[in-house]
Design goal:
alpha/beta, eight-stranded parallel β-barrel, 22% strand, seven-stranded mixed sheet, 11 helices, 18 strands
Length: 391
């Protein structure tokens, strides 16, 4: 059975044509059951901290909160969204943490006013926070000197990445924090989105090594995110139990060396929400340009930017306008949107080259559903060409 069938008539048990009738197109739909299933896979970690930049929909954040998932914010707006979804500012472990490489003025004011813990990604953040809120604790996001991901644009480690405090500067940053009586209580390492198991496992030893250099003040380590998501039928799910065991063993060795327990956090974003999301669109033109047959939709990269940004693959399915599941012949098509921009193509590779997708034959008025659209979909949308936001 295909993980991503090419011909469908429902999403999460609801007929596609009913969703289109009630909400119009294009529309984002999220299946809560998929999110809950992914949360359950990560329960062996002490803390699951959702990287809400992947999808900050308030209903999604509320679902995370109700399932005891904490949250990571990367902007003042994300902090406000977490609060609006019902997250408290106080608690242990901290319900909301701010992670970034800079403070803009608004965010610095906000974290100080609410006492939001800070995960510092640059030495300057330590000074700016310490001057306003001396005497507390911070964590350090460390760039380990290597990275990995499904695209060079999602690689967040190594010397070409802007993210994190360079690993050689850890001791200097601890001394910097001490000038403001700030205790460094945790280490966070994230190397990229969609990294493979070999690279993810390498992070565990690196993170614990950094923690040892800081010393007994460390009470928490974070595995970061980056867990891969299967976008194709042939893609395998990551072995979460094996991944946990790698980190758990490293954590136990660290706790022995430090002389006290160490909390183990994981910070998934895409892993929790990607497979839950669907972008429902309507097919508005079927036309041939030379050798290529085009399906043109009422949604473009204003609604879903991953293909034009990363050449990312998204599974696609056709849903008949009349709700029929009758078999149809397959054709090779290029799928594009309505925008006045040549790059407005959903079927392209990382180099921006147009490719085709094999899909059922479709007519104007049928629906095309883009799957695995729950992460970095709506949150990266724009109003380019003055297109309104999707429902």
């Amino acid at each position: 059975m295909r993980r991503y069938p090419k011909l469908i008539d429902e999403i999460a048990g609801i007929p596609v044509r009913d969703l289109a009738r009630d909400f119009g197109t294009p529309t984002y739909i999220y299946d809560a059951a998929t999110i809950v299933a992914r949360i359950a896979q990560l329960r062996r970690f002490d803390v699951i901290r959702y990287a809400q930049k992947a999808n900050s929909n308030l209903a999604v954040l509320d679902l995370m909160r109700r399932y005891a998932v904490l949250v990571d914010a990367v902007s003042a707006g994300e902090i406000q969204r977490a609060l609006a979804a019902g997250y408290p500012v106080a608690g242990e472990p901290p319900p909301v943490v701010y992670t970034a490489d800079i403070f803009d003025r608004e965010t610095l004011d906000l974290v100080v006013a609410h006492g939001i813990p800070v995960n510092c990604g640059s030495p300057e953040m330590i000074d700016q926070y310490g001057e306003r809120a001396p005497g507390g604790a911070i964590t350090l996001r460390v760039n380990p000197g290597f990275g990995h991901g499904h695209s060079r644009k999602t690689n967040t480690g190594g010397e070409h990445s802007k993210h994190g405090i360079w690993h050689d500067e850890i001791e200097a940053c601890v001394a910097r924090a001490a000038r403001f009586d700030l205790r460094v209580s945790g280490v966070h390492v994230h190397i990229g989105s969609g990294a493979d198991m070999e690279h993810l496992a390498a992070v565990a030893e690196a993170c614990c090594g950094f923690a040892r250099r800081i010393g007994p003040s460390i009470t928490t380590i974070s595995a970061g995110g980056g867990l891969p998501t299967p976008y194709r039928d042939e893609d395998a799910h990551v072995d979460i139990d094996a991944y946990f065991e790698i980190w758990h063993a490293a954590r136990l060795r660290l706790a022995r060396d430090l002389g006290h327990p160490v909390r183990l956090e994981i910070e998934p974003g895409r892993f929790l929400v990607a497979e839950s999301g669907f972008l429902l669109t309507e097919l508005r033109a079927v036309k041939r340009e030379g050798a290529n047959l085009f399906y043109l939709l009422d949604a473009g990269f204003n609604a879903l930017a991953r293909p034009i940004l990363y050449g990312a693959y998204q599974p696609m399915a056709i849903a008949a306008a009349d709700g029929s599941r009758a078999e149809r012949p397959f054709v090779d098509v290029v799928v594009g949107g309505p925008l006045c921009e040549s790059g407005d193509i959903f079927t392209q590779n990382e180099r921006g080259e147009v490719r085709s997708e094999r899909l059922p034959e479709a007519r104007v008025g049928d629906f095309l559903v883009i799957g695995c659209a729950g992460a970095y979909g709506f949150v990266m949308a724009s109003n380019y060409n003055n297109e309104p936001a999707c429902a």
